[in-house]
User: Fold Transcription antitermination protein NusB from Pelovirga terrestris.
Amino acid sequence: MSNNRRRGREYALKILFALKYQSDQVNVDQILENFWDNLHYSEDILGEPLEDGAQPVPEAVRLFTEKLVRGVLEQRPLLDERIKAVAHNWSLTRMATVDLALLRLATYELQFLTDIPTAVTLNEAIEIAKRYGSKESPPFINGLLDKIAQKNSARQKAD
Assistant:
């Protein structure tokens, strides 16, 4: 399951990264369909080779990827608000595109996918940042997500 979720997170990151370069009015169904149709045939947007095409993407990976992408896009204003609240001296426009996409993804998980332990979400985000971000990405992502997780915990205790 965790390997499926890692792949789902990585695919979601790639889709969200690509969406940075499109207008705000996106057809999510079309974006997802295009991604799955071209997964094995096009250059990967983040520079990593794609699957070899011999094995179809497991349904669990597809479902998790699509849940993440749809969730991040639907909740983007709230996610950005949560990120801004802890990103002192950083505007969202100043953040690296990969870092911001990964922060949105992990913040969505922390906020809405509460069946996933916080430590798992943070660890996965850091590991993915090591693979796709700059050398500064893992500590940057870790610091912000830790603050977001603490605020989430405080909010849940207050409820």
Summary: The chain has a mean pLDDT of 88. The chain has one domain: 2-158.
